[in-house]
Amino acid sequence: MTGERQIIAAVRSATFGIGDVVKHRFYPFRGIIFDVDPEFANSEEWYQSIPEDVRPIREQPYYHLLADNGQEAYVAYVSQQNLLTDEEGGEPLHPAVAEMFDRDADGRYRLRPGRAH
To answer: Are 12 and 4 in contact (CB under 8 A)?
Structure first.
């Protein structure tokens, strides 16, 4: 395998799952995953709007997050390479979390029935 193919193969499998609380590697926001694309599945315009020097590769999982930055809540679309597990704990502040997720006895977030894509 060439170097680029090895990188692509390494990031094809999803590190995170639905209900995981994550934070962005560089930007100050965190969120809860509610959907996963096995590779980039957003618009070309969105992809090209990312500065080329920091633009992530397409061939990796991308995650849909109910995100918040402490001031506002929004939906984010983030590449796997830019996410980390959020070790801070605490409930994400996005108001849709309560509508979309239940918490199990272990504190994990589970999509409510009928909420899966």
So the answer is: no
pLDDT digits (tens, 9 = 90+) for 53-100: 889 999 999 999 999 999 999 999 999 999 999 988 778 899 999 999
Domains of the chain as residue ranges with CATH: 3-111 (2.30.30.390)
As separate numbers, helices (DSSP H) first and strands (DSSP E) second, the chain gives: 3, 7
Buried b (16+ CB within 10 A) or exposed e, 79-94: bbebbeebeeeeebbb
As given in the structure block, the two tokens for residue 55 are 């633009």
The helix/strand/coil state of 80 is: helix
**Mean pLDDT of the residues in the chain:** 89
Q: Whole-model pTM?
A: 0.85
**What whole-number distance in Å separates Cα of residue 38 and Cα of residue 13?**
7
Which DSSP helix (H) or strand (E) runs through 76? strand 73-79
Q: What is the pLDDT of residue 87?
A: 87
